[in-house]
Write a structure and sequence with these properties.
Layout: E1 29-35, H1 42-51, E2 57-60, H2 62-67, H3 69-77, E3 81-84, H4 97-115, E4 134-135, E5 139-140, H5 143-146, H6 149-159, E6 165-169, H7 173-188, E7 192-193, H8 196-202, E8 212-213
Parallel strand pairs: 1-2, 1-6, 1-7, 2-3, 4-8, 5-6
Helix pairs in contact: 1-7, 6-7
Bound molecules: zinc ion.
Zinc ion binds at residues 35-36, 85, 89, 125.
């Protein structure tokens, strides 16, 4: 007679395959985040994540997504979280409330249609409250400025702590190269690479609309 297998309750997620299949809340974890895409380097970054059973969060710009619709779907289908980085990278504080809402809502719809995920997180290009949780960061790699693979790798590996949200930009070749080095190095150090939503949840934080989050440290 075959043994009866006890099944864990199925968790409800935004889309069937978003996030890691298993997270150990007792072990360290960080969220890699990639802004400004989609662009030409998504597939390299996603391949590096998949190779190490890892996930990340990609904050996409609406106008970019319309240029790379199949890319958004591939990134999402690999289990990564898709977030909103405005419609055309507007300076949100300079816009009216109605224009901000239009930029965010339009982009949510584009990303939801392309990815099949509901999009709940925003990374505003310039800080301004929206009707969704705003995700900031605790490590700024300045990858967009240095465009230097080694520098980006060093910033992350020298500063990383449990609960960090790490800011990078997926539209640069040097960032894709850096990701290919950072991902195995963090895994080697025992970090789980999780989506922003997974990180918040593992730390018992229920993210709220209009609030800013820049890390999710373990509770002491
Ligand atoms: Zn940006």
């Amino acid at each position: 007679e075959a043994p009866v297998e006890e099944k864990a309750p199925v968790e409800e997620k935004a889309a069937a395959n978003v996030g890691n299949s298993q997270i150990d809340p007792a072990k360290p974890m960080v969220a890699l985040t990639f802004d400004d895409g989609p662009g030409n380097y998504e597939d390299r970054i996603v391949a590096a994540l998949q190779k190490y059973n890892s996930k990340a969060t990609f904050f996409y710009v609406g106008t970019q997504a319309t240029k790379f619709p199949s890319t958004v779907k591939r990134v999402a289908d690999a289990g990564n979280e898709i977030g909103n980085h405005s419609y055309k990278h507007e300076n949100l504080p300079k816009l009216s409330q109605a224009a901000i809402e239009s930029s965010i809502n339009k982009t949510n719809e584009i990303l939801r249609n392309q990815s099949g995920q509901s999009v709940s997180l925003v990374r505003p290009p310039a800080l301004r409250a929206t009707g969704q949780p705003s995700i900031l960061w605790s490590i700024d790699t300045l990858d967009w400025k240095t465009k230097n693979t080694k520098n980006t790798v060093n910033v992350v590996l020298n500063q990383v702590k449990d609960g960090d949200i790490i800011l990078m930009h997926s539209i640069y070749r040097q960032t894709a190269e850096a990701a290919e080095l950072i991902i195995p190095a963090l895994k080697e150090r025992g970090y789980q690479l999780v989506t922003v939503s997974e990180l918040a949840k593992a730390r018992g934080i229920n993210m709220e609309a209009g609030k800013n989050y820049s890390s999710f440290r373990p509770k002491k």
